[in-house]
Amino acid sequence: MNSSWHRRHDLPWLVLFVIPAFVIVVAVQFYPLAYSAFLSVQDWVLTESQVPKGFVGLENFVKELSDEIFRRSVRNSVLITAGALVLEMFLGVCLAYLTMGSSWRMRSIRTLLILPMVIAPVAAGTLWRILLNSRAGLVNHLLSLIGIKGPEWLASPDWAIVSVILLDTWQWTPFVLLVVGAAIASIPDDLLEVAAIDGASRWKTFLYIELPLLMPLLLLTFVFRMLESLLSLDSIYSLTNGGPGYSTYTLTYYIYTLGLRSFDFGGAAASSWLFMIFATFSIGLVFWYQRKDW
Amino acid sequence: MKKALLLLLIIGLLPVGALAQDMPHAGVEIVTNFMQSGTYDVGAEQLEPGFEEMTGIELEIVASPFVVLVQNNITDLTTGTGEFDVISGDFWIGSVWGQMHPLDDFIERDMWGGSFIEGLTKQGPSAYFDGKRIGIPYSADAYGLIYRTDIFEEAGISADWETWDDYIAALGKLAMHLEGTDIAPNVFAFGASEQAAAIFLGMYDGYLVDSMGNYALDHDKAIAALNQLKSLLDYNPEGATGLSIDEANSVFLTGKAATMICWVSFVRAAAQDPDSSLVVDNWATARFPGPGFPFLSAWNLFISGYSENPDAAWEWIKHYITEDEAKRRFVELGVGSPFLSTYEDPDLIEKYGHDFPAMVENLNRAETVPWIFAAFEVFFRHMSEFIIDAATAEETLARTLADWAELEVPEGLVQSAAAQGQMQEG
Amino acid sequence: MKRGRSPKQRLLALGHGVILFLACLVVLVPLAYLVINSVKLPREFLTVPPTILPTQVTFEHYGELFEDNKTFRHFRNSLTVTLWTTGVTIITGTLAAYGLARMRLSAKILAAVTFIFLFIRFYPRVTTVIPFFLVMRELDLLDTVWAIIIGQLGITIPFVTWLMLVVFQDLPAEIEEAAVVDGASVWQRFWRVVLPIVMPSVSAAAILTAFLSWNEFLIASSVARRKASVLSIAVAGFVSDKGIQWGPMAAMSVVMIVPMIVFALFAQKYLIRGITFGAVKG
Q1: Of A2, A63, B2, B6, which sits 20 to 30 A from C218 (CA to CA)?
Q2: Would you tell me which residues 192-231 of chain C have a C-beta closer than 8 angstroms to some C-beta of chain B?
Q3: Residue A45: inside a domain
Q4: Domain limits for position A89
Q5: Which chain C residues are Cβ-neighbours of A111 within 8 angstroms?
Q6: Domain annotation for chain B: domains and CATH numbers
Q7: Which CATH superfamily is domain C61-274 in?
Q8: How many CB atoms lie within 10 A of CB C181?
Q9: Do A178 and C275 touch (CB under 8 A)?
Q10: Which residues of C touch B298 (CB under 8 A)?
Q11: Which residues 11-50 of C have a C-beta within 8 angstroms of A?
Q12: Rounded Cα distance, B322 and C163, in Å
C-alpha cells in the first residue's frame, strides 16, 4: 500500500466532508463576529444615532474596565460560577460513584437525576423563584418544619447570590454526573481488579488509578461548565432579574442590558471581547493540559 | 339575546359584500404589535375578524413579551426595517418617536376624537414630536393607593390626604389602632425593585431633566423623597423588601394590610371576586398623595414612519381605540380605559363606585417620565440597593447621577418633559 | 450478597441509600411542585404557608392553553426547529469532524481549527444578535423558523464538530486498515466501518443538541415575531410589566418540559454510553 497515494486520493473526499459545516459556520458566525469586533472600537448607541458615530480606538474597552458596574458584574460572575462549579463537580463526581452499576435500580436513579438539565432555563428560573419565595415559598416552609427560619432568599444581596448558585447547581450537576458516570463505566475493570488484588483501599484506587484517568475529562467538563455558567442568562433573568439592586448582575447580564436594552453596541461588543479574552485563556488551559495528544 | 346578536351580525354583514367597492384598502396587509399580556393583545385578536371583514385589510397581530416588544420596536425603527405598521409603545420607545408618522392630518380629516380623560390627551400621556401628535392612548392606569374602608371606619381615620406627609401620619394612627393584630398599615411590592420608582415620583416634585437637557434630579428634594420612601418600610409587614407585585396584592386581598400602593387595574377585579378576596366591598381607591405625580402607564398606538400603508394603519387605530371597545376591554379584560365615558357609565359606577372617582382624579394628574430604559434601569437598581440598606441616600443619588451622565435624553422625551413641567427652569 | 454483612458495611449501605434518596427528592420535589402549580386555582398561588395539596384540582390553565391555537403553533415551531437543527448539525458536524480527523493536518493547524470552533461556541451571543437580525432581514427570513434554525446552527455545529473530532481522533487507525486494504473509498469506510462504532457518541451529541435547540431563547426571540414564535418565548410571555401569570406559566412550562423528559428517558441509554467521547483511554 502506498500511503501517500491514499492520502492524495482521500483528500478531495475529506475536504468535501468539511465544506458544508465550514460554509454554514462561516456564513452564520463570521459576519456577526467580525461586525462585533468592528463595533467594539466604534462609538455607537443606537438610541442616539442610526449609524456608528466613528472610530474611538480602545476607548470602549477602557470605559468598560473602569466602569463600577462592569467590575461588580465580573465579581458577581466569578462568585456565582466559582460557587456553582465547586458544588457541581463535587456532587457530580460523588453521585456518579454512588450510582455506579447497571442494575435496574441504579439506571432508574441515574435517569431521574439527569432530569433537571432538560428543563428550559427560563422555566427553571421561574420555578425556583416560586420555591425560594421567602414567605410563600416551599423551601422556607420545609425549613420551618424542621425548626429553621429560612432566609430572605431573593431579597438579600448575599442570599440572592446563593440562590443563583443553587439554581445552577440543581440544573447542571446532572451534566457532571452524566459525563463522569459514563467515564467511570469505561474504565477497564481489570485495572481496578489488579489494584484490588494489590490490596489497595477503595480510596487509594480512586486517588491513584481512577482520578488520573478521569482528569482530562474532568478538566474538560470543568471548563465547559465554567463557560456555560458564565454565559447563562435566561435563568438569572427569570430568577432574580439581576437584583436586588446589582447583587446578581452578572457579566452576561451586563452585556445583555447594555446591548439589547440600552442599545450601546460599542460598549456591549467591547465587553464581549473582554469576556472572550478570559474564555480564550480557559480553553487554552485545556489545550495546554492535553498537548500530548496533539 | 344570542339569537338577536346573530341576527344583528348577519344584517350587519349583508351590505359589506354589496359595498365592496367602498373598501379603499382592500387587500392591503398591515402588521400591528401589542404586549403579550392576555389583555391588550387578546382585545385586538377579538376585533381582527370583524375589522378584516369590514375593511378588506389583512391584519397581522404580533404579541411579544414586554422587553421583547420594546427591543423589537427600537431595532425596527432605528434600522428602518418597517416590519410593523402600527406600533404599541409609550415613553420607553421615546428614542424612536422622531421616526413616527404624524397623526394630525388623519385626526383633522376624520374629525376623530372621543371623551378622553382630559389629562391623557396632553403631551406626555399622548405622544407628540415637534408639536405634532404621533400617538393615541388606548389604555390608562395610574399608580394608586387603595385602602380598607372598614378598618378606616373603625379607627376613625378618613382617607383625605393631600400629601405623603398626611398619608404617613395616617399610617401612624393605623399602626396604633392595629397594634397586636397581624394586619400591617401598608403593603407595597418593595421586592419588585422597578416599582418603587413610582412612589419616589409621587414624593418628589423637582425636575427630571436639567436646563441643559440632561438627566438630573434636584439634590435636596431627591434625598428627602428617598428617605421618605424608606420610612414606609416601618409600616410594612416583615419581609416587605422581598414582596413581588403578586405577593403584595395577595397580602392585601387576604386582609393583612390596611392600605396598599399598587397598579389598581391589577387588583380591581380580584378584590371584588369572593374566590380570591377576603375584602370584597370593603375597599376603595384613594387619592395618590402629592406633591409629585401618580406614575402613568398609558400604551399609545403609533404609525411607523416606515409604514407603506399609513392610511390602512389609521383605519386600524380608529377601529381599536373606541369608547365602546375601551369599555368592553375594561369589563372583560380589566384594561384601564382612557375614556371618561367608561368611568361615567351608570352600570359600571354601581359596581366600581368605590374606585372610580379617585381613579379619574389620579389619571388626570398622572404623568409619564422622560426616561429611556437605560436611565430607568440605573435609577431603580441604585434605589433598590438603598432600600435593602446596601447604600445611603447620598450614595444612591450620586451613583445614579454619575451613570446618567453617560446617557443622552432623546429629543422626543426632552419635549415631553418640558410639556409636563419636569424640566429645570432657567 | 449472600454472605452476612458486617455492621460497618450495613451502615455504609444505609448511608448510600439515604443519600441517593435525598438526591432524588431534591430533583423530584421542585418538578412535582411545578406540576401541582399548573393545576392550582389562582387564589392558592401565594398563600402563606404554601398550598402543597390544592383543595381543588383545576385544568383551567391547560384548557386556556389548548383552546389557544397559538400554543399548537408554538409547539409545532419548536419541534420543526429542533428537528432541523439537530439533523443538519449531526450530519454536517460528524462529517466535518471525520474529515478533519483524517486529513492528517499538522497538530498545530488542527489545534487552531478546534480552538476557533470552541471560540465561536462560547462567544456571548448577545452581541451578535443585532448583526444577525440585520442579515436575516436582508435575506427576507425574519419571522421564519429558518432564521432560528440558521442562528442555532452557528452554535451547534462548532460544538458537535469539536465533540466528534475528539471521538474520531481516539479511534485506533487499525479499525479502518482492513477496509483500506479492501480498497474501500473514504465514504464507504466512514459509512460502513466508522459510523457504526461511534454511533453511541453521535446519538449523545444529537441528544445534547436537541436539548439546546428546544430550550434556546435569545436567538429565537430576536428573529421570531408571530408566525415563527416558539415555546421558550411563550413561557417568557407570562411575565409582563405588571406581574406574572403563575398558573398559565406553570402549565406552559409543563407542556414544554414533558416532551424533553420523555425524550430523555427514551434516549438515556445512548447518552450515557456515548458521552465519554473517548476522553478516557483504557
Answers
A1: A63
A2: 221-222, 225-226
A3: no
A4: 60-293
A5: 264-265, 268
A6: 26-140+298-344 (3.40.190.10), 142-294 (3.40.190.10)
A7: MetI-like (1.10.3720.10)
A8: 9
A9: yes
A10: none
A11: 16, 19-20, 23-24, 26-31, 33-34, 37, 45-50
A12: 59
CA–CA gap between residue C102 and residue C99 (Å, rounded): 5
ipTM: 0.83
Q: Do C119 and A279 touch (CB under 8 A)?
A: yes
C233-263 per-position pLDDT tens digit: 888 877 766 667 778 888 988 988 888 888 8
Q: What percent of chain B has pLDDT over 90?
A: 73
A136 and A277 both lie in a single domain: yes
Reading the block at residue C242, the C-alpha cell is: 405588571
pLDDT digits (tens, 9 = 90+) for A63-104: 889 988 999 999 999 999 999 999 999 999 999 888 887 778
Q: CA dihedral in degrees (B298, B301, B303, B309; nearest 10)?
A: 180
- Domain match, A196 and A93 both: yes
Phi, psi of B100 (to 5 degrees): -95, 155
Q: What is the CATH number of the domain that holds A208?
A: 1.10.3720.10
In a mutagenesis test of the A interface, which of C126, C135, C182, C209 is the best target, namely the one with the most A β-carbons within 10 Å?
A: C126
If one counts the domains in chain A, the total is 2
Is residue A171 located within the same domain as residue A245? yes
* Pair A253, C127: CB distance under 8 Å: no
Extract the C-alpha cell encoding C59: 385544568
CA distances from A110 to A95, A97, A101, C32, C254 (A): 9, 11, 10, 18, 21
Q: In C, which residues are within 8 Å of B297 by CB distance?
A: 241-242
Residue B37: list chain C partners with CB under 8 A: 240, 242
What is the pTM for the complete model shown? 0.87
In tens, the pLDDT along B315-355 reads 999 999 999 999 999 999 889 999 999 999 999 999 888 89
Using the beta-carbon criterion (under 8 Å), do A260 and B95 form an inter-chain contact?
no
Q: Which of A134, A155, A261 sits opposite B373 (nearest CB)?
A: A261
User: B16 pLDDT band (50/70/90 cuts)?
Assistant: very low
Q: Is A123 a domain residue?
A: yes
